[in-house]
Design goal:
6-stranded parallel sheet; Rossmann fold; 3 domains; NAD binding; alpha/beta; binds 1,4-dihydronicotinamide adenine dinucleotide; elongated; N-(1-d-carboxylethyl)-l-norvaline Dehydrogenase, domain 2; 6-PGluconate_DH-like_C_sf; NAD; binds uridine-5'-diphosphate-glucuronic acid
Length: 448
């Protein structure tokens, strides 16, 4: 099939590369010329494991091309995927300006019957709006069918997720569009759920809201574990064995970040308000998450008192491992709070430093070498569970830091291992370990 993907961000690029890999002829269009120039030269503007090699391979074999030319992109294709951004505006509602513009452009340039498929996460009712825009402006003799096809990929494993997703959701009431979309996705052997447009839109928000709820729930249980002396890892393992609960998304930490959970939970709360329904559960999920992101700095103050002029090293800037994305990363919140307290901050990340620098500028120091980042630090905070961080030998904290106090926001180390070293160690939902132990085998509980 001939396919165009509008938007060369995470979703657009992964969709383009993977559909080309499946043998389709794909054009990816973006309004940012620099992105398209990079892509035409075989470089990915984002870090995503496996993506650049797929882009390059399909660019070279002619299955994929990149353009800023709307006529070239939209004039003669079977399916157009919309994968433009839907960022948050004040109050949490969704900014649909990119959706509006792309819908107008599509309507203007199409020259044959086409399916317009929305991958962007859009509030319920938006696909009807896209339909209206396109139908009111397209050449009257052409048929354009709008389909909701929400995306469920995770950053860091997006290429894998495309080929091994749990389900594909197709929202349309047009049987011909269903059959074309099924034909497109059939080779993936992923269960396909067909439904109406609004339910498809809601499936996306409800999925993200449910996963965010699971995270805030386990973080609250973790906070309770610290108070009563239980261990969240044991608890999560225990409850996860119940198939109705499952093991996934029960990793306690310093809350969820990223470009979607914070934005989509806010959007759903906002959307509920607009139809006079107060989504109190989700409001609490967001509140718990905000509080959880502040846990490391609270623990730091409890431990060493004033942070004024204290040298603090932050390990990890990306919102999760295997991505250079720092959007809504807990690290940014932690850094701002540390700076407000007067701390001197140095941060390590294997790949996200350039993106963090664009936001934080020279307010902190950066190092892509963990040992250099930890040198002479009085406190270290682990914010991202990168493999590079998890595999730092514990003696590195003892030998490089001035005072080996570690606040591990992602529970990267086993308590048994930590106890072998003179490290004061706070993690999330687990007993604290103090380096000045009268008896080396004692693990003190929180609050003792
Ligand atoms: N990032 C993720 O992991 C996931 C994102 N989503 C959703 O997918 C959508 C896109 O997200 P990302 O890829 O992260 O966004 P992004 O912000 O990384 O990329 C969006 C791209 O669209 C381009 N664009 C804007 N207007 C355009 C137009 N008229 N024509 C062509 N290109 C245009 C922008 O220049 C930008 O390159 C959002 O709705 C998001 O919520 C859904 C699942 C996963
Ligand atoms: O709509 C989206 O954009 C995407 O949002 C999430 O994907 P993503 O944000 O890439 O990453 P996740 O792996 O879900 O992690 C999100 C945040 O939750 C945190 N998290 C995740 C899992 C967990 O058990 N505990 C936890 O704190 C992570 O550290 C991270 O900050 C969803 O998992 C995807 O299905 C969805 O498509």
């Amino acid at each position: 099939m001939k396919i165009t993907v509008a938007g060369a961000g995470y979703v657009g690029l992964v969709t383009s590369a993977c559909l080309a890999e499946l043998g389709h002829q794909v054009t990816c269009i973006d309004i940012q010329r620099e992105k398209i120039d990079m892509l035409q030269n075989g470089r990915s503007p984002i870090y995503e494991p496996g993506l650049e090699s797929l882009l390059v391979k399909n660019l070279r074999n002619g299955k994929l091309d990149f353009t800023v030319d709307a006529h070239h992109a939209y004039s003669n294709v079977d399916i157009i995927f919309i994968a433009v951004g839907t960022p948050e505006i004040h109050g949490g509602s969704v900014d649909l300006k990119y959706i509006h513009v792309v819908s107008h452009t599509i309507a203007h340039y199409i020259e044959n019957d086409v399916i317009v498929c929305t991958k962007s996460t859009v509030p319920i009712g938006t696909n009807d709006l896209i339909k209206q825009i396109i139908h009111s402006r397209k050449p009257p003799k052409l048929h354009a069918e709008v389909v909701a096809n929400p995306e469920f990929l995770r950053e860091g494993s997006a290429v894998f997720d495309f080929f091994h997703g749990d389900r594909i959701v197709i929202g349309t009431d047009n049987p011909k569009a269903v059959s074309i979309m099924e034909q497109l996705y059939l080779p993936l052997k992923i269960p396909i759920i067909t439904t109406d447009i609004k339910s498809a839109e809601m499936i996306k928000y409800a999925s993200n809201a449910f996963l965010a709820t699971k995270i805030s729930f386990i973080n609250e249980i973790a906070n309770l574990c610290e108070k009563v002396g239980a261990n969240i890892e044991e608890v999560a393992f225990g409850i996860g064995h119940d198939k109705r609960i499952g093991h996934d998304f029960l990793k306690a930490g310093i809350g969820f970040g990223g470009s979607c959970f914070p934005k989509d939970t806010k959007a759903l709360v906002e959307l509920s308000g607009s139809v006079e329904h107060r989504f109190e559960l989700l409001e609490a999920v967001m509140k718990v998450n905000n509080r959880q992101q502040s846990v490391p700095v609270l623990k730091a103050k409890e431990t060493i008192g004033s942070l004024q002029d204290k040298k603090v090293t932050l390990l990890g800037l990306a919102f999760k491992p295997d991505t250079d994305d720092v959007r809504e990363s807990a690290s940014l919140r932690i850094i701002n709070e540390l700076l407000e307290e007067g701390a001197v901050v140095r941060a390590y990340d294997p790949i996200a430093i350039p993106n963090a620098k664009r936001i934080l500028g020279n307010t902190i120091e950066y190092s892509s070498d963990i040992r250099v980042a930890l040198h002479e630090a009085e406190l270290a905070i682990i914010a991202t569970d990168w493999e590079q961080i998890k595999h730092v030998p514990l003696e590195v904290y003892c030998t490089h830091m001035k005072d080996s106090i570690v606040i591990d926001g992602r529970n990267c180390y086993s308590l048994q291992e930590i106890q072998k070293y003179p490290i004061t160690y706070f993690s999330i939902g687990r007993p604290y370990v103090f380096k000045d132990r009268p008896n080396d085998s004692v693990v003190k509980e929180s609050g003792e």
